[in-house]
């Protein structure tokens, strides 16, 4: 009996990231069931239109915009093109379906980012505090709401968590590979919302 208990505990530790990911994803699905609205406003329309221009006419003028960073418009339209709906007209059934796919991907990214961050925190905070922090982030319905929006915040929270996780991991293991990944993530952050780059740096012990 003891051997079975130890074996189950060992298995849970081995697959803890997957387990946390599944729990985080289920929480998002439940939230989406209760609040199925996809938030799409004037800013969302601007991001979508800019992304369409990027794909239709990839020039510096369409990529470097005075008011909008390029990553999120590119992300939205990359999703649309990947499912064969590139250039869908706003308000059409294809467009609505494309937005739903974008939201699903944002939810998956959010759950994965949370799972990675939760696992990384084990090395930096006491177990009791680690679980409390994890619970607070897991039940952060504001993040769930942003993931259901067609705004930069839809992936910004996930990117901040992943960047912070990688930064903490690089401090423990300062390898060339980790620095390259960290540089890539900071570059994505700059192309999404430059102001958010200060958050991972603020977590430095």
Automatic annotation (TrEMBL):
The chain crosses the membrane at residues 12-31, 71-89, 95-117, 129-146, 152-172, 179-202. The keyword Ribosomal protein does not apply. One of its GO terms (biological process) is lipopolysaccharide biosynthetic process. InterPro entries: LipidA_mod_glycosyltrf_83 (IPR050297). It is found in: Cell membrane. Keywords: Cell membrane, Glycosyltransferase, Membrane, Transferase, Transmembrane, Transmembrane helix. One of its GO terms (molecular function) is pentosyltransferase activity. The keyword Transmembrane applies. GO terms for cellular component: plasma membrane. It is a multi-pass membrane protein. This is Glycosyltransferase RgtA/B/C/D-like domain-containing protein.
